[in-house]
Amino acid sequence: MDEATGARDKVDVWQQQKPGVFSSDMAYGGEVSYLGRRGRLQLGDVIEQVLAGPATARFLARKIAAHFIAPRPSEETVGRIAGSFRDSGHDVKALMRATFTSPEFASRASYRSLVKSPVEFMLSAILALGAAGKDSAQMVIDYGDPTGQLLFQPPNVAGWPPNGNWISPSMLLARFNFVSQLLDSVPKLPAASDAARLHLDGILGASTARRLEKTASDRERWLVVLTSPEFNLK
Fold first, then answer.
1. Which pTM was predicted?
2. Cα torsion at 52, 62, 107, 97 (round to 10°)?
């Protein structure tokens, strides 16, 4: 028995994850009331009652739209996505289809309006350089804390806050250091002559364009591309 927590056993969840177990002798078998519904409710009944609420579809639609479309999606977009989700009987495929076919998803205003999370940023850089492997994966783990996204350890049950929350001087410095170390770890860098077109769509801000003009090697060019504001956005 752990005196501090009262736990009977210590389980290292990183190495030994276990499935949940239903214990009938610990379960309450009587009727309960939940969101206006009363009865001997099972898990499915509770989920159905949550989904039946008029605010649920809009809440989920707004979360999805803020992750894939824009930091502050329009109410019209949220309403359209929520309606499709609700009309489908709460089918997640319908939710995502409505998101990706929304006019706002493909609008000019939504282009590069979202900030890549640290993991998205690091994996994008690794894939751009063709550097996938154990060493690169370890770098992603090592840079989790300085970039603000330690794998499997979000700050709370809501997960990591998106977009502008990833931008701070220390976090941007950590991204720069990650790219620099990654470039040094690649034995032979791929040619960078077309990197701006492939990974930045060829659409550059004035600052990035000026920095690229001053590069004299593939490493310098990759460093500019992978640390540019454009590469940090999606």
1. 0.79
2. -40
**Terminal-to-terminal C-alpha distance of the chain:** 49
CA atoms of 44 and 207, how far apart (whole Å): 54
Read off the pLDDT of residues 75-100 as tens digits, 9 standing for 90 and up.
999 999 999 999 999 999 999 999 99
The amino acid occupying position 85 is F
Q: How many CA atoms lie within 13 A of 69 on its CB side?
A: 26
Separation between Cα atoms, residue 116 and residue 18, nearest integer Å: 32
Helix, strand, or coil (residue 115): strand
| CA 16 to the chain's CA centroid | 25
Distance CA 211, CA 11 (A): 51
In angstroms, rounded to a whole number, what is the distance separating the alpha carbons of residues 72 and 209? 29
Q: Which of 225, 175, 218, 176 is nearest to 200 (CA)?
A: 225
Q: Which pair of tokens denotes residue 223?
A: 């460093």
What is the distance between the alpha carbons of residues 221 and 189, in angstroms, rounded to a whole number? 11
Helices (H), the chain: 43-52, 54-68, 75-87, 92-100, 118-129, 134-142, 144-147, 169-185, 195-200, 206-213, 218-226, 229-232
- The predicted-structure confidence for 121-179, as pLDDT tens digits, reads as follows 999 999 999 999 999 999 999 999 999 999 888 988 888 888 888 999 999 999 999 99
Residue 222 and residue 194: Cα distance in Å, rounded? 10
- Considering only CA atoms, give the Rg of the chain: 23
* DSSP designation for 194: T
